[in-house]
Amino acid sequence: MSPSRQAAGQGPTANPTGSSLDRRRFLIVLGGAAAHAALAPHAAWSRKLGLPLPALQPWTLPADPPASALELARALVGAAILAPSNWNSQPWRMEVDGGSIRLLADPTRALPVTDPDRSGMLVSLGAALENMLVTMRAYGLRPTVRYFPAGDSRGPVAEVTWTGDEARRDRQLFAAIPNRRTNRRSYDGRGIFMQNRAALAAQMSEDLRLHWIGDRDQIRNVADLLQDATRAQVLDAASERERLAWMRFGDDQARERGDGVTVDDLELGGPARWFARRYFNPRSRFIGLGAGSAGKQAREAIGSSGALALLAAPRRTEFSCLTGGQAYERFALKATQLGIAHQPMNAAIEVERFRPDLARSFGAPGEHPLMLVRLGHAKRPRPSLRRAVALVASFRNT
């Protein structure tokens, strides 16, 4: 990769009517109200016990650009925070300095066993970056991104600057940011219309590949592969110990930390739902049962999908992982806009020996898989928790 890359933020232009814009504003506010209602009982319980409440980021964004530079920067960082990440680890930090935002990895939130080459972390950082860019364009700003070379894990991966007085674009994707969810529920098996596939594929950049599977027999083959990969991942003691650290046993624990994934949100079935602390503890005698349960759940989840999508790059570089995360987030926001449920399922990517078989399943031998996504239709789940702007960003000269 060259020492740095610069690109002006570009994206599809939307020209909504005034009424549709009002509706989107209403949906943004409604999403925030739903998140508040979901958290209120736990906040009340913490207050009753006299415990300090951790700072959390609401699933809302200002519909219009804030007037002050500080509030604008806070809104941009707030949009970035609502991006997805592996196990909701939120591995990002941001440095705001006047009219620029530097995006950095937070090494304390890495998954070095599951993600030893930082590919997953970079995908998450790319998703956070894209949320910022979408928000800037929706606010009538023109972003410019500088990508930094690989090698310094402590330095920024990207820096964004912006200018004003642009036409407001990407407003439909912007409206989808507070409504996007990773949906782990069982899907109803309905397929994805070809025009919707085309709309999703249009979110990809030219240097990435998007492969589809919609045939039921091929979906079953991938389901078998995911079952094996998931079982192998759970039986790897070091890997499972790392993931167990991000599992939250109840809403109160999740509320205290502001990250991770609760047992309820994992949509576990059968005994695994009630005995997750033992089923997924690598020191437990029940770990074999946990591995079998997780593998079966992965197989059934893939099997219920209407379609599968594989996001891949010709080869793995830090830049392709970062831009792959950007492309995935646009893909996820477009799916949200279209009412399509989606969930990344990356066990066959994280367990390296399964990657070649996964790529071949999609007719993409030799390519580097970045994200495997199942798509379909299901009731939207509640939002996961996010740490607040004050916990992930520093501000200077604003």
TrEMBL record:
Segments passing through the bilayer? none
InterPro entries xref list: Nitroreductase-like, TAT_signal
- PROSITE patterns on file: TAT
Gene Ontology molecular function: any one: oxidoreductase activity
Q: Write down the superkingdom of origin.
A: Bacteria
Q: Where is this region: Disordered?
A: 1-20
In Swiss-Prot or TrEMBL terms, this protein is called Uncharacterized protein
**What organism is recorded for this protein?**
Eiseniibacteriota bacterium
Lineage runs: Bacteria, Candidatus Eiseniibacteriota
